[in-house]
User: Which sequence fits this backbone?
């Protein structure tokens, strides 16, 4: 991968990739692996980018797909934790951000199902229901209902932690 | 007042340190180490399976009265294991302190050499396995007689004109020679097929990684 491509086409969207990768990993080491893999897949798949969608939307979609694939691979090799039974050490290890509330929110997001994580990340990034539906591959009505449920679940998970 | 998740998200990322991208270094390191470790593991398991299998068969062959086949299989398998064990020592000597690309290329070079040696050997050991099998059955006992002799006697009764060479029907000898020649000729191809069944996916993955790495370097 040329550094020009990385600087021009990936780095401006690094925030998106970081936010997604953080939601699917518990440790810094895993996060860096996922980040690298996403960057690599963007570079490898760049010819498949269709001009009809925005580059950022495409990056979102690809990042989510790569993270889901890596997560699946890890689960298959029995190295990963079930999404709704995160062990204590994994949560302790996930203090990636200076903002404690954000860390707690991420801990809660990691306890959602893989798809719900993707949906809520897109919602928090202020993507429209239509864009989320396009990226996830569903319809906007379902997205609205889903987001409502996810937010309720997150509130429950965060209850008592965030003031 | 309780913050909404939207507020936590926005405020949390106001700190620019939260979104520092990790450096893209050691790309493929994990992949290459993983794939090579997987191959080493499979290679070791395969050799152990040959040793255990040939030993078991050796024991069983004496028990069921085909010891020549058991001994033949055991000897040929032992040669395969010894040669491959020596080849695998070369795998350990690959320098792990070089870059991923150099490491995986060195591994690929070793693998090609190993495949080439085994392919050549296959032209010998498949015929030898075949001969062990034929001799094993020929010299096995049947109704207090050797199975080979019993078959010849039966054949002569039905076809008295059968030409015998050293007490063995010439047609049988020609058949065995043909079998040996075919196996010697196609041994390499049979080996390729055999290897692709066991290691095919690993080889494919390895080729993909090398192709990716070469594209990355260009």
Assistant:
């Amino acid at each position: 991968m040329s550094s020009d491509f990385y600087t021009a086409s990936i780095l401006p969207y690094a925030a998106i990739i970081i936010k997604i990768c953080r939601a699917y990993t518990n440790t810094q080491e895993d996060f860096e692996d996922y980040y690298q893999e996403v960057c690599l897949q963007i570079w490898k798949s760049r010819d498949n980018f269709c001009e009809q969608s925005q580059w950022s939307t495409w990056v979102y979609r690809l990042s989510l797909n790569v993270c889901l694939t890596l997560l699946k691979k890890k689960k298959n090799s029995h190295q990963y934790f079930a999404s709704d039974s995160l062990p204590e050490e994994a949560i302790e290890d996930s203090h990636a951000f200076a903002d404690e509330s954000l860390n707690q929110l991420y801990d809660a997001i990691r306890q959602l199902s893989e798809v719900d994580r993707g949906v809520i990340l897109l919602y928090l990034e202020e993507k429209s229901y239509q864009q989320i539906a396009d990226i996830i591959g569903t319809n906007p009505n379902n997205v609205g209902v889903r987001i409502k449920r996810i937010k309720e679940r997150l509130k429950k998970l965060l209850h008592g932690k965030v003031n | 007042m309780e913050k909404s998740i939207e507020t936590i998200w926005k405020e949390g990322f106001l700190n620019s340190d939260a979104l520092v991208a990790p450096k893209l270094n050691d790309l493929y390191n994990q992949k290459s180490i993983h794939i090579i470790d997987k191959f080493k593991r499979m290679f070791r398991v395969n050799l152990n399976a040959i040793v255990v299998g040939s030993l078991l068969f050796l024991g069983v062959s004496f028990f069921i009265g085909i010891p020549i086949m058991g001994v033949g299989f055991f000897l040929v398998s032992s040669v395969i294991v010894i040669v491959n064990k020596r080849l695998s020592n070369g795998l350990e000597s690959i320098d792990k302190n070089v870059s991923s690309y150099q490491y995986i290329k060195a591994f690929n070079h070793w693998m090609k050499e190993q495949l080439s040696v085994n392919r050549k050997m296959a032209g010998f050991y498949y015929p030898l396995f075949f001969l062990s099998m034929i001799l094993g059955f020929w010299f096995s006992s049947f109704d207090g007689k050797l199975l080979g002799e019993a078959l010849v006697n039966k054949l002569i009764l039905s076809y008295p004109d059968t030409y015998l060479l050293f007490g063995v029907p010439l047609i049988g000898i020609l058949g065995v020679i043909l079998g040996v020649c075919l196996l010697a000729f196609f041994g390499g191809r049979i080996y390729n097929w055999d290897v692709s069944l066991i290691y095919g996916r690993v080889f494919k993955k390895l080729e993909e990684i090398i192709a990716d790495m070469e594209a990355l370097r260009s």
User: Anything to note?
Assistant: Chain A has a mean pLDDT of 79. Residues 55-76 of chain A form the longest helix (22 residues). The two ends of chain A are 45 Å apart (CA to CA).
